[in-house]
Amino acid sequence: MADGGRPRSFYVLAAVFTLFILFLYGPMLAIVVLSFQGPDGGLVFPMRGWSLHWFRTLWSDGGSVDISTAFFRSLRLALVVMVLTVVISVMAGLAFRRRFPGAMLLLYVAIASLIMPSIVVSLGIGLEFRLIDEAVKAFGMATGMESIQRNFVTALGTFTSGLGAHLTWTLPFGLLIMFAVFNRFDPSYEEAARDLGASRWQTFVHVTLPIIAPFLIGVAVFGFTLSWDELARSSQVMGSDNTLPMQLAALTTTVTTPEIYALGTTTTAASLLAVGVLLTVAFVIRRSRNQR
After folding, report:
1. Less Cβ around it within 10 Å: N or C end of the chain?
2. Is the confidence at residue 65, as pLDDT, over 70?
3. Does the residue 170 lie in any domain?
4. Domain for residue 172, yes or no?
């Protein structure tokens, strides 16, 4: 036993946990600090002044790449993925409340992408859409449709192959959360609503949805953040449009200034802001329920 009655293992575990926290968040803090260097700043310490120079460079024409376009493209994609993940996960959760033939097989198929390497999934989706491209072009040639022959280039894009690739990553998490939620859901609330004359839709909107709303916030957080930060599954499916993580990966091989740190700080702040907003919504919902 150590002094104070605490076992020595407590202090060992505390030291290990402290080192883990430093290892996890230390690099992030270093990047945030270095992104506020002056115009003559470098990629390492010591700091050379304090300013917002590299943030202004990042968002101006003086930046190395078009960051603003990639930023808002990733934001739009993440928001669409978030909404679709929530909607599809809820629908699947409701469907799996009833047993039907092949339910377990369908579940395993739905979450199988979690065990597949992300780059393999991206390559497979990219190959699939290239086959679609060839089929569309062949159709245009066979039918003599000049509009296809003249204008069609590829079906690869942010909201086609890119959206599908991101959903293969976010949906399994959303499905697992909703399956766990509905597995513990007490159907007596719905039965009471129907006994009082509520329709199925009214029961869902006024009874089921308010109960599961906090968990939907969690699914939304997963959907947004996983899509916002995804790189491997985006690498082969975005066509000519890069997302923000792809731009960041490209910058690591070309940029030797704190501009890349400014981009990392910006993306981290956007992620934290989105998570903060969603958690605030969850807190407001929970508080309003407790006050009733």
Report:
1. C
2. no
3. yes
4. yes
